[in-house]
Automatic annotation (TrEMBL):
Regions annotated as coiled coil: none
Record protein name field: Lipoprotein
Species per Swiss-Prot/TrEMBL record: Streptomyces silvensis
GO biological process: alkane catabolic process
Ranges annotated as biased composition (Gly residues): 53-79
Record has Signal as a keyword: yes
Annotated stretches, region: Disordered: 34-82, 200-245
Length: 353
């Protein structure tokens, strides 16, 4: 019998260590070797991992989407009932299919029900319906950055609990949404729809959709505040040539994108939290293929401690400014000596450091 030597244990151990080191180096190249790299998921150092949903977390799992009762409950799942979970800091996700959608702090879609009413606020979802569509408690909910806080309210349910409302519409999650970004409840039973930040039905390129009372909002509301509609030829992130600042980054709506000099790229960290985010909403994740003229190195997202995901260029966190009212505005430039328009390579335009 021919004997093949596998080498000494020490030699094999050294080879394994070299291979592991090479794999780690491969994972840490997205943000530039000169300044070290973020973890593969881009999570803040010391930040808790975001909630991922799934069984046992209050979102339920659902076992069907029967629409005979308009609830989409089917056989349902009782996991959602009795485990109402605070939405925390609300956020707005820009969905290519649904338009602007309001989510909870973990990125789970919030929904509204056509059989409810907004004037006066009233929820008609209970028992089996509530198992499939867990209610969103009013307590602890905070308006999404850039959204009018006065739109948030509450409605008393039959059991005495208080449910979150947006412009009078009671808010729910869907038990079958098990991952942040899921919107499996959209259109279920012809009565359930993802909610827009103003409480209307989410709709691409519009401020809302026809509400439960048949009032057509749709295109009449689109662009009323400077235009939420995204031009067909405009990328999620692109650039424009500003007459004073030169080439700067803009989002899918043409709004100027900014950098905050108190942030850091390594470790990837945002110094803008709490009230700061109301004035400086984060730029949500953008597909790398949905960009034009933007540096691809370090074009990654990271998980903020508040549960939001934020886009970066060269690992620098990106924001927009609530004080910019229309495309082309650069009212955030130089604010506080720390906020500057972002260049295509992620640098802060005009910053002295």
């Amino acid at each position: 019998m021919r004997h093949v030597s596998g080498g000494s244990p020490g030699t094999r151990r050294s080879a394994l260590l070299v291979a592991a080191a090479a794999a780690l180096l491969t994972l840490t190249t997205a943000c530039g070797q000169e300044k070290g790299e973020q973890s593969p998921k881009g999570q803040n150092v010391g930040a808790e991992a975001p909630v991922e949903g799934g069984a046992g977390d209050g979102y339920g799992s659902g076992e069907g989407e029967g629409d005979g009762d308009g609830y989409g409950a089917g056989s349902g799942s009782a996991e959602g009932a009795g485990k109402a979970k605070s939405a925390g800091q609300l956020a707005v996700r820009d969905s290519k299919k649904l338009g602007k959608v309001v989510t909870d702090s973990a990125g789970f879609t919030l929904y509204r029900f056509d059989k409810d009413t907004a004037q006066p606020p009233k929820s008609t979802c209970a028992d089996a319906c509530e198992a499939a569509w867990p209610v969103v408690p009013a307590k602890g909910a905070k308006a999404a950055p850039g959204v009018d806080e006065s739109l948030l309210g509450e409605v008393a349910r039959a059991d005495g609990s208080k449910q979150l409302t947006i412009d009078g519409w009671p808010m729910y999650r869907f038990a079958k949404d098990t991952e942040p970004g899921d919107a499996k409840g959209q259109g279920v039973g012809g009565t359930w729809y993802a909610a827009a930040p103003d409480g209307k039905k989410a709709a691409p390129g519009t401020a809302g959709d026809a509400d439960a009372n048949g009032d057509a909002n749709g295109d009449a509301d689109a662009g009323a505040d400077g235009g939420a509609a995204k031009p067909a030829d405009r990328a999620g992130l692109s650039t424009r040539n500003d007459p004073e600042l030169g080439e700067i980054v803009v989002d899918g709506n043409g709004m100027t994108v900014y950098r905050f000099t108190k942030d850091s790229a390594w470790p990837m960290k945002s110094a803008c939290t709490g009230a700061c985010l109301k004035k400086w909403p984060v730029v949500e994740p953008v597909d790398k293929n949905d960009t034009l003229g933007i540096l691809k190195k370090g074009f990654v997202t990271f998980d903020r401690p508040d549960g939001q995901k934020q886009q970066t260029i060269d690992c620098w966190p990106l924001y927009t400014f609530a004080g910019d009212k229309k495309p082309g505005d650069t009212n955030g430039q130089g604010v506080g000596g720390t906020w500057y328009a972002a260049a295509p390579d992620g640098k802060a335009v005009g910053a002295t450091k």
